[in-house]
Design a protein that fits this description.
mainly alpha; 2 domains; 125 residues
Length: 125
């Protein structure tokens, strides 16, 4: 009985420590933000550095697997809508037959598809 009580107390004492451990996905996101900060500092872009530092603080304070999954789902939905719009724009340009507009709209569609592919990547690298 004493061992059970002792084990329970240890588990309760350790729970806050376990809760503070960031998930692997949050750590991966944090590493990407830190790499972006380094690139922005090297380029001398102080406004970008400030924004990235704010994102890093938010990651450290609020990141969870659930929040990352929800953010990823929003990004996928947004990118999917953009691909659909770009496909419609391309179809319209093809209907009109302007080669320059067709090429431009095709490039934009390709970019939107690439953004969708990026959004669909798993959370962990």
């Amino acid at each position: 009985m004493k061992q059970l009580i002792l084990a329970s107390l240890l588990a309760l004492a350790a729970a806050p420590l376990l809760a503070q451990q960031p998930s692997a996905a949050c750590e991966a996101q944090r590493a990407r933000i830190e790499a972006q900060i380094s690139r922005a500092q090297a380029a001398g872009n102080s406004q970008e550095v400030a924004g990235l530092k704010k994102a890093l603080r938010a990651n450290q304070a609020h990141c969870s697997d659930a929040s990352l999954a929800a953010e990823r789902e929003r990004d996928i939905q947004k990118a999917t809508k953009k691909v659909a719009k770009r496909e419609k724009d391309l179809a319209e340009a093809q209907r009109k037959g302007d080669p320059d507009k067709i090429a431009q709209r095709q490039r934009r569609l390709d970019e939107a598809r690439q953004a969708l592919t990026e959004a669909q990547k798993p959370l962990l690298p």
